[in-house]
Amino acid sequence: MSLLETPAAIVVVDKLLLDEQAISTLQESIRNISGVTQAGNNYGIGDNLVIRGLGANYTFDGMYAGASLGNSYNPTRSLTNIESVEVLKGPATGLYGMGAAGGVINMIEKKPKDKESYQIETTLGQWDSHALMFDATAPITDKTAYRLVTNYESSDGYRGLSSERSEVYATLRHYLNENNEFIFSSAYIDDEIQVDSVGHPVRVFNPDTANATSDTIGWQDLPNDTDADGDGIFGIALTPEQRQQLADSLVSTDGLEPYDLGEQGLISPLSKPNEGKELRFKLQHKMEINDDLSLHQQLLYRDYSSDFVRQTGAYNYVYWNRNGEINADPRAPLVIDDVLYPYAARRQEYRRTKSNEKTWQYFADLTHTWSLGAIDGEQLLTVNYENRDMSLKSWSIYDADGTSSDNALPYILDIRNPNWGTGSFEDYDPVLKSNYDKSVAAWGISLQEVLYFDDMLTGRFGVAYSGTEQSYQHKGTARTPEKSLEADTDDAGVTYNLGLNYRLNEQVATFVNYSKGRMTYSILGSVTGEDDRPDSESTSFDLGIRFTAFDEDLLASLVWFKTQRTNLRYNNDEYDDNPESDSFNISVPQYFYDNNDTTSGVEFDVNLALNELWSMNFNATYQDAYSILKHERTEQTKGVPKKYASLWTSYNHQFPVLSEPVKFSLGVTYEDERSISTGWSGLPHSVIDAYVLWDAAMSYQLEKWHIQLNLRNLADTTYYNKALFNGGLPGDSRNVKLSVSYSFD
């Protein structure tokens, strides 16, 4: 279907735009898509994107491409083998299987071509960045063609966030006859990407519990604990001189924004880049049964392993009244031998995680077209099955606040000039914290019906029945060494989508869409086996208008939406099933089931390509994301901005002295402030500031050569591109990338 006919919120980013921006990863591509942003507080591991403030599914040509598994394991997806990126917003369980509430990010992979062509490209950039890519495609016989794409890239990275990646993609297409096409593809990716889980931290100073703001404070405004709650527990007692030393160290943004550490950071040499290895095989079969009936089958095997060491915390405590205790150890300023270290980092933990995920997935799509009078129709019957087997182990090492071992990590005495522990992670008596196997199986059957009532009215209606089964086995840790029995749970239910699209004329169309999906509960979480825990549900409502002009060289859309993740189960604080407890109470429900994550707002997208001279991509989003947890509303989901927008425009100019035009590009991105508040750690109001970034590019095509220069962050703006836990991940400083490619037949 053309986008002007489609009764759903969809955005497509083509390869031309990605190439103009010299984009190499999925994270970089989201600037072109309304409603898609970085998630908050995922410890900086891999892709962790959200659509409309809620979770996203990742697929390659509709098949599983790894999940957002938070701080456990999560690949950083490359766009080396990608032709375009599609985003379908809202739940789509019936079409894509195991679903997320926000929507699906579908990456369309390169396919073999019937014409022989080759391309080699080299790239050089800041921080000793370099890459070499080779792309070859050609027919082998009149029925068979291949494509081979290889890539190697390496970078020391801004602030030492190094990366190295080797990739090989091989695809073979064969026409058995005019009605049967087979495509076999394989992929191997081996990368090492440094993880920064801390970024620039917010100093733990809670102005709400002090007697003055951080820029006017004196020592007398930081009183010691007086045991006002009468529990006999006192926080650390500081002398007036030490309290004045703390007051003198404060600046106006402490407790409210990250502390700017400049180009250095808290990335310890004890950390280890994420060594991710992915092996993927996919077989597709397309069969034209007759003029009105076709079958498309896909079978996928994917194996992904991950191994990294990350620093999970480095907290600089200044002043905090926590539940009636002022600066209670270890959430207190560091004092050693009566010497105060106002910029010290306490409660350090380093965590090593080793994980593996093996996935089998099968989809079969049977498409039938029909006509009845003036009405045309398309039926899509889909069946799918997916199985993921996962194993995970993690170990932790601590400073003296987390372990009684004589071999504890040294405290960081000053985050501005860190003193790091020597040796390796294994030298500090790692403790096994997690050790389990988990499997998740999902299946479903769906029927979609697209009706072309006439040239103006289109409907899309679908219903699906899907189910999931989960098993979990604890295999023993330091705290609970005994291997447990396998626990199992399952759930099933109905999902659906209803959409109408009406073309007011040849240039303007409106659409409305309502969909309901399902999310499998806690893909990596434990299963107790006590009862079958129901899956969460998701709903989305879209009301939009699309318009086109200049012979469809311009396409724009404006969408109002409301998307929810519902039926979230949280513990009821009043429930206590211990008969010997003073708060014993089993007359209330054990769980709240009516909690939700909700995002509503407006999205605007414009794409323009005029006379091959001028092109433009513009998108803007306003959204309000909040949560209802235990019947209380939490404003602005962590890391999700209310407003953001991006513009990229290119113009071809012909200079008289040159045989071909030069393309000039200019881009600007705006992102609103984002919350990083985590009240339990004493930062109720902390945020990452809004920012504006400018980028530019210039390229020249001369016969078979293509030369392109990209300039990023032209104004050298200091900003944070991701919200971390109690901190922000600094974005790159001003940098340059030069790409040169040669194409030949």
Automatic annotation (TrEMBL):
Protein name, entry field: TonB-dependent receptor
Keywords of this entry: Cell outer membrane, Membrane, Receptor, TonB box, Transmembrane, Transmembrane beta strand, Transport
GO cellular component assignments: cell outer membrane
Gene3D superfamilies: TonB-dependent receptor, beta-barrel domain, TonB-dependent receptor, plug domain
InterPro entries membership: Beta-barrel_TonB, Beta-barrel_TonB_sf, Plug_dom, Plug_dom_sf, TonB-dep_rcpt-like
Family membership: Belongs to the TonB-dependent receptor family.
Subcellular location: Cell outer membrane
SUPFAM superfamilies: Porins
Annotated TonB-dependent receptor-like beta-barrel domain residues: 266-714
GO MF annotation terms: siderophore uptake transmembrane transporter activity
Segments forming domain TonB-dependent receptor plug: 3-104
Principal subcellular localisation of the protein: membrane
Membrane topology (UniProt): Multi-pass membrane protein
